[in-house]
Design brief:
Layout (H helix, E strand, L loop, with lengths): L2 E2 L2 E2 L4 H27 L2 E4 L3 E6 L5 E6 L3 E7 L2 H6 L1 E8 L16 H4 L10 E7 L1 H16 L1
Antiparallel strand pairs: 1-2, 3-4, 4-5, 6-7, 7-8
Amino acid sequence: MQTTGLFMRASPLPFVIFGAAGFFGVPLVAYLGKKLNYSRTEYRIFTDRLEFEEGFFSINEKVVKYRDVKEVTLHKGVFQRFYGLGTIYLATLATGTSPWGSGSGSFNPFNALGFGNVSASGVSVRDVANPDELFDQLRRLVDTQHA
């Protein structure tokens, strides 16, 4: 048999090696990226605004004033419910209604994997414990700014 470099010409070995690297490498990179991103995520809640900072490789900072918030949405996925977590989305007029598809334009796979949380004007407070309590608190703060 004729060889080319490390592999025999008709060998499936290159496909197996690159397939295994992709099969194990992509989830590993996604997991590590999300873990590093979560380790640097910070939310600060004030009476008139929410300050948000996240990122490991590139850092995003955002301030959302409650007077600009048009909608407060609580989302609890299957795994989030299992662990008692939830995601609260504060949407402003420029962001549409929801980061999950109905009015926000298109689905962003990087956002779904946890890479990035800053949209045009809204912010998602992701995977928080006691989401119902925080949702009520943020909704009241938004309502008092609109009163």
